């Protein structure tokens, strides 16, 4: 398309808005514009410094975070307090989504490695949204369910694969 | 000596100096704080009542607003709908029943008050005479005179304040709907702004606790207001069946004083019984009025029906705390403070209980340690 026209139709700086950012997060990717605008009013934007702890393992989680800019490292501690880095998340990733539906202790810790802007969606706001805007909230929760069930499916496959390898290696051990 | 106490002379001197500086700065902070609070008090003097009333109105109207609010109608729109319906309802009531003649009633009460008081003092005098026959030492105690003095100052207070409060009521009609509109529309946004000030590390916890506390508080406050409303209406209805005058005012008094547990209902009963005694005498109607106050309003309605339904047992206060709250509230804001002191203490109580509950249910460290032991 002609860049002149695309500029007019896109409106000024839509890609800089929070609603656009939210639409790029996989959980919210299927939401309509209206629902994104609604989502924009219930999320909290939080600014973090470098090396700031977002939550610790064992904290009571109350919501999920999406990274708008910056970098977050997810790590766990073993009994000797040694940290094991699980994964590094970049802008556009999200984490902590399990806590959105039920308050459970966090199973890993999260810390920023640079200056970071996080967008948090928390359970109390979600519950209010369910009451006030049921269809929008339902779409958000459906997106969440889709992501979680994808992950469940993936881990199921992984377990299956591991089991198969286990039995294979067992058989090899038994042969000689 | 210095060896035993472990402090050298210089250290003692330093300690002395630090303590003096601390005390001095403490006094300085305290005095400046007291002037600031004084300034705040004068600035917010007339605003306390309208803000309180509009908060109450906002709490009561919030469920209605939520009922209309939805996908199609925004919050502002639904507030307007509620306002419109409410004003229609009030208009309809005024047209069909006609407003109770509040002003005439106030005027009559102003005229009648000294009469009631005089009779009450006479009655008390009679009682005292009888008492003096049996217990001569009471004679030194000039109770009726003291009571007359305090009653007269009280009357003077009412007479001075009534014209002022008439002006105030006019402004209330303007301010309360306006304030409650903004409370209804922007309270969520305001609270979000306040919560977002908390440091990142505690943000989730504060948000969660706020959610719990606000749920409890809304129920508590709404329950209390509804309780006072229902008690007031029932007392009004019950008194209207007799020939007693000022039934609406007595209903209002009973409803408002009912906000204070234990002591409130008794205080709210006194004016009604006094008027009944003076105007109607010790007849069947007096006993019916006593019955309305005690049995119907307090025992049956309040204890058996309203409190179990509207107010959870969680918010029960210790009687000692109730008395302290009344005394302190009275010191701060006079009669109004006495009435709202107890609800405010209950609110603080609920907040503390909720935070404690939250910490107990989710004691993070023990949980994570037990879980880790299971895994390893």
Please, could you describe this protein's structure?
- The complex is a heterodimer of chains A (176) and B (376).
- Chain A is built from five helices and eight strands; from the N terminus they run H-H-H-E-E-E-E-E-E-E-E-H-H.
- Chain A has helices spanning 3-10, 18-24, 33-42, 123-132, 134-174; strands spanning 44-48, 53-55, 63-69, 72-77, 83-89, 94-95, 109-112, 116-122.
- Chain A has a four-stranded antiparallel sheet. A four-stranded antiparallel sheet of chain A has the order 2-7-4-5, with no helix packed on it.
- In chain A, helix 2 (18-24) packs across helix 3 (33-42) and helix 4 crosses helix 5.
- The model of chain B has no long low-confidence stretch (mean pLDDT 77).
Poorly predicted runs of chain B: none
Rg of chain A (C-alpha, Å): 20 Å
Number of strands of chain B: 0
Rg estimate of chain B, integer Å: 27 Å
Throw out a few tags for this protein:
heterodimer; A: 176 residues; alpha+beta; Jelly Rolls; four-stranded antiparallel sheet; 8 strands; B: 376 residues; mainly alpha; 12 helices; 0% strand
In short:
Chain A has 176 residues and is of the alpha+beta class. Chain A has helices at 3-10, 18-24, 33-42, 123-132, 134-174; strands at 44-48, 53-55, 63-69, 72-77, 83-89, 94-95, 109-112, 116-122. In chain A, the strands form two sheets. A four-stranded antiparallel beta sheet of chain A has the order 1-8-3-6. In chain A, strands 2-7-4-5 form a four-stranded antiparallel beta sheet, with no helix packed on it.
Break the fold down into its secondary structure elements and pairings.
The complex is a heterodimer of chains A (176) and B (376).
Chain A: H1 3-10, H2 18-24, H3 33-42, E1 44-48, E2 53-55, E3 63-69, E4 72-77, E5 83-89, E6 94-95, E7 109-112, E8 116-122, H4 123-132, H5 134-174
Antiparallel strand pairs in A: 1-8, 2-7, 3-6, 3-8, 4-5, 4-7
Helix pairs in contact in A: 2-3, 4-5
Chain B: H1 2-5, H2 9-43, H3 48-68, H4 75-97, H5 102-134, H6 143-195, H7 200-240, H8 247-257, H9 264-280, H10 284-310, H11 319-361, H12 364-375
